[in-house]
Amino acid sequence: QVKRSGGNGLRFFERTMNAASAERLALEADLRHAVERSELFLEYQPVVAAAGADIRGVEALVRWRHPHLGRLSPDRFIPLADESGLIGEVGAWVLGEAARQGRLWADQGLDLRVSVNVSAVQFSQPRLLETVSRALHDSGLAPAQLVLEITESSLMNDVESAVGMLRALKNMGVRVAVDDFGTGYSSLSYLKRLPIDIIKIDKSFVRDLGGDSRDVAIVRAIIALAGSLGMSTVAEGVESAAQADVLRAAGCDFFQGFHFSRPCAAEALVL
Ligand code: C2E
Ligand code: MG
Ligand code: MG
Ligand code: MG
């Protein structure tokens, strides 16, 4: 029930809501043209081995160079793409571009896995299979070099369909990672049914490592679980050497975070 505080509260509320939805509509209209106008671009963040810290892979992260608003982060427009049906086109562009870059690195003799994020809506659409196979075919990237990151919550939306989609993807030879693990509501009994290669420990558990001993316990439990299910672990959001030390001692396999490198243009990566 809406509270009419002093008479003007509701009107103010409506006005700001209208402004917000007008802004959304405008952004959605712009997003319709973003791909064809080459306004999207990718940055890559290294994924390093816990032992030795050499770069084993990169995660592709999309950005939008908006003609008026400047650089927009994916949190500003991926949800919009999901809701408006534009995610198919945006997602296909990201996959194609990341696979093309991955192939370039392979041609330079670099052995890097390239991770690409798949949104909840994208993951629920059967045409994802076609999109992935086209990206692999057009680029010539080896399927085993491609990792698809799917958030825990999109996997748990509809577990039956998720199992089917994951099996189909695995049949193509690509690897699958659960992104933001620990923030959704996975039932552990589902986890064992899903053909997953990698668990990415959400950065909310990494942030207070060293300070909050409960987070250490959680991270240890996730790593032990992954190990016993035959999955490897990547810790996200590693910002300090102290966090890396705790994670290494807990047996985490790979690290990703500002402590090692910020996301940057492909040409700027030191590989
Ligand atoms: P994510 O997949 O969990 O990606 C990790 C996010 O954490 C990235 O934010 C990255 O820049 C940020 N990050 C990396 N290291 C650190 C660190 O040490 N500390 C902190 N605080 N943050 C760190 P970004 O690039 O803004 O992306 C946000 C989210 O947007 C991603 O989360 C992913 O869910 C989504 N996203 C990004 N690119 C794509 C894409 O191409 N397609 C789809 N569907 N989603 C994407
Ligand atoms: Mg990710
Ligand atoms: Mg994540
Ligand atoms: Mg995230």
Structural overview:
It comes from Pseudothauera lacus. Residues 24-271 form the EAL domain. This is GGDEF domain-containing response regulator. The protein is α/β, with parallel strands linked by helices and 271 residues long. The protein is built from eleven helices and nine strands. Helix 1 crosses helix 2 and helix 3 (87-107) runs parallel beside helix 5. The chain starts with 8 loop residues before the first helix and ends in a 16-residue tail after the last strand. 34% of the residues are buried. Residues 45, 61-62, 73-75, 78, 94, 117-119, 149, 179-180, 203, 236-239, 256-258, 263 line the site of ligand C2E.
Mean pLDDT: 93
- How would a textbook summarize the main sheet? 8 strands, mixed, barrel
Helix content: 40-55%
Note the overall shape: globular
First-to-last CA distance: 57 Å
The arrangement of helices and strands along the chain is: HEEEHHEHHEHHEHEHHEHE
Uncertain stretches of 5 or more adjacent residues: none
Write a short abstract of this structure.
By secondary structure, this protein is of the alpha/beta class. Helix content is 48%, strand content 20%. Strand 2 and strand 3 form a beta hairpin.
Question: What's the structural blueprint in terms of helices and strands?
Answer:
Layout: H1 9-34, E1 40-49, E2 55-66, E3 70-72, H2 74-84, H3 87-107, E4 113-118, H4 120-124, H5 127-139, E5 146-151, H6 152-157, H7 159-171, E6 175-181, H8 188-191, E7 198-201, H9 203-206, H10 213-228, E8 232-235, H11 241-250, E9 254-255
Parallel strand pairs: 2-4, 4-5, 5-6, 6-7, 7-8, 8-9
Antiparallel strand pairs: 1-2, 1-9, 2-3
Helix pairs in contact: 1-2, 3-5
The structure holds ligand C2E and magnesium ion (3 copies).
Keywords: Phosphoprotein
GO biological process, one term: phosphorelay signal transduction system
Domain EAL: 24-271
